């Protein structure tokens, strides 16, 4: 994300319960606790470093690849999580054509009341309010007037909320990451196939203007045969993670006491996966990860946090910077980075290279043959007229944060729902983009040994099909 608000921040919530901490701590997790058993990578491989190929579990339903939404004139949305992210996103849902916000949920009642007031000011009926504890979202999901459940809550709640929504017949869109364990990702895939409900990772960076332009150029062959790409979430979050008010509790910082790997791969992985048609003609096969010592958060605490603060009881194990190499079935290489614990300018890297040239972002620059021949970076904006995506041509100045990508993401999602179209991405994409969370941790523990990335599509990746590079609806 470009500003101070990270990508799935924030639903108000008390610090994680003892049960959730025991379920997700690195000590209790290791490889097995991260769901790396028979469902996509064994504990033995994680500990010894032996690469392996693991068969997908038997399919319980039918594929969701290429399955359209049922057409509807109005999309009825329920918002779960009204902290920093959810509070901002409700404004965008209210600005969309053919969308109604029918219910809001957060354990902090004041946040639900503020959200409900926004809905009324937008000229819609007052939404139902769910604020009776951390599990009131379960009652919300039982409603008969909800088409899409939007989830913007702390990471360890995403799986349960997505699962509950689908079991109650709702489509669900989840801020990243989709889940924190490999077995949870498989369960969401299986549930989506069984319930015929879409479970989508709402990856807004796929809708960035630069990302969509590069996507169309890649698909038009401007880069030649694709060879390599890179993406990252390098964003100094030290001040926010130690802020007593920004997050509702220390949930995000606590993940740095549990996992050593890439906690937030989606913003970097999603766009590059789109460029390379991952799950649509290619697939991510394995990941090898390396991590630096965990020093940054402790040093920041030493310099900025008063003695006696509860954070002084924490021991940080999360690598200050992780670097992962993802190999694809076609032999391409994707580099992923994650660093939220040290001082540096914001960057998602966002790079793509092929036999005809390369693009690199932050700042945006390009070099392509035969367009360029002097070994000097060229102006990327020169390609705007020909290659900007139709969404950016129709919405040249979209509202909302992060340069408009948030608005275009939910505009396109609800457009697909209203028109009965196939969504731009599905549960297989979300599972693939999130798999580096547990697998990078396992690889670092195994001294960089490659870990197999499951084929969540169960072979469907071989079939070319549309993604974010969509055709404008008639």
How are the SSEs placed, and which strands pair?
Blueprint: H1 18-24, H2 26-29, H3 43-48, E1 75-80, H4 84-94, E2 99-105, H5 109-121, E3 128-130, H6 137-141, E4 148-151, H7 158-167, E5 171-174, H8 182-195, E6 199-201, H9 209-219, E7 226-234, H10 238-241, H11 251-254, H12 266-275, E8 284-291, H13 296-304, E9 322-328, E10 333-339, E11 351-354, E12 357-360, E13 365-368, H14 384-387, H15 390-394, H16 405-419, H17 427-434, H18 436-445, E14 451-452
Parallel strand pairs: 1-2, 1-4, 2-3, 4-5, 5-6, 7-10
Antiparallel strand pairs: 7-11, 8-9, 8-14, 9-10, 11-12, 12-13
Question: What's this, in brief?
Answer:
By secondary structure, the chain is of the alpha/beta class.
Give helix % range.
25-40%
Please identify the structural class as seen in this structure: alpha/beta
Sheet with the most strands: spatial strand order: 13-12-11-7-10-9-8-14
The averaged pLDDT comes out at 91
Strand content: 15-25%
Please, could you describe this protein's structure?
- An eight-stranded mixed sheet has the order 13-12-11-7-10-9-8-14. The chain has a six-stranded parallel sheet with strand order 3-2-1-4-5-6, with helices on both faces.
- It has 474 residues and is an alpha/beta fold.
- Helix 4 (84-94) runs parallel beside helix 5 (109-121).
- The longest helix is centred in the C-terminal third of the chain and has 15 residues, at 405-419.
- The chain has 18 helices and 14 strands.
- The protein has helices spanning 18-24, 26-29, 43-48, 84-94, 109-121, 137-141, 158-167, 182-195, 209-219, 238-241, 251-254, 266-275, 296-304, 384-387, 390-394, 405-419, 427-434, 436-445; strands at 75-80, 99-105, 128-130, 148-151, 171-174, 199-201, 226-234, 284-291, 322-328, 333-339, 351-354, 357-360, 365-368, 451-452.
- 32% of the residues lie in helices and 15% in strands.
């Amino acid at each position: 994300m470009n500003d101070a608000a990270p990508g799935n921040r924030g639903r108000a919530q008390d610090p994680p319960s003892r049960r959730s901490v025991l379920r997700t701590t690195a000590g209790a997790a290791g490889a097995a606790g991260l769901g790396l058993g028979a469902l996509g990578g064994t504990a033995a491989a994680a500990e010894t470093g032996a690469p392996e190929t693991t068969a997908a579990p038997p399919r319980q339903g039918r594929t969701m690849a290429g399955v359209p939404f049922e057409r509807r004139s109005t999309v009825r949305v329920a918002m779960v999580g009204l902290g920093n992210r959810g509070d901002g996103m409700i404004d965008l849902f209210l600005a969309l054509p053919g969308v109604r916000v029918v219910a809001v949920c957060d354990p902090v009642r004041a946040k639900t009341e503020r959200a409900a007031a926004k809905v009324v000011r937008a000229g819609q009926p007052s939404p139902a309010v769910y604020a009776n504890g951390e599990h009131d979202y379960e009652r919300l999901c039982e409603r008969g007037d909800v088409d899409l459940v939007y989830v913007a809550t702390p990471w360890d709640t995403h799986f349960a909320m997505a699962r509950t929504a689908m079991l109650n017949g709702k489509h669900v869109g989840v801020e990243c990451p989709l889940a924190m364990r490999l077995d949870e990702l498989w369960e969401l895939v299986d549930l989506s196939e069984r319930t015929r409900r879409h479970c989508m990772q709402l990856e807004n960076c796929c809708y960035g203007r630069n990302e969509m332009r590069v996507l169309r150029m890649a698909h038009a062959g401007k880069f030649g045969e694709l060879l390599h790409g890179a993406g990252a979430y390098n964003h100094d979050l030290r001040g926010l993670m130690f802020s007593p008010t920004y997050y509702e509790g220390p949930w995000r910082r606590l993940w740095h006491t549990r996992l050593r790997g890439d906690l937030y791969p989606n913003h970097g992985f999603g766009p590059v996966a789109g460029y390379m048609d991952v799950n649509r003609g290619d697939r991510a096969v394995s990941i090898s990860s390396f991590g630096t010592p965990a020093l940054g958060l402790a040093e920041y605490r030493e310099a900025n946090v008063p003695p006696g603060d509860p954070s002084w009881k924490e021991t940080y194990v999360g690598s200050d910077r992780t670097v992962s190499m993802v190999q694809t079935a076609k032999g391409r290489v994707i580099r992923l980075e994650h660093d939220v614990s040290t001082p540096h300018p914001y960057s998602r890297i966002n790079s793509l290279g092929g036999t005809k040239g390369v693009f690199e972002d932050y700042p945006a620059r390009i070099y392509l043959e035969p367009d360029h021949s002097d070994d000097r970076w060229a102006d990327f904006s020169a390609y705007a007229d020909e290659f900007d995506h139709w969404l950016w041509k129709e919405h040249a100045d979209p509202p909302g944060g992060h340069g408009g990508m948030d608005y275009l993401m939910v505009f396109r999602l609800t457009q697909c729902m209203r028109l009965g179209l196939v969504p731009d991405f599905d549960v297989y994409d979300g599972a693939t983009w999130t798999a580096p969370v547990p697998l990078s941790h396992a690889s670092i523990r195994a001294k960089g040994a490659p870990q197999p990335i499951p084929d969540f599509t169960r072979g469907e990746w071989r079939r070319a099909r549309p993604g974010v590079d969509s055709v404008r609806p008639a």
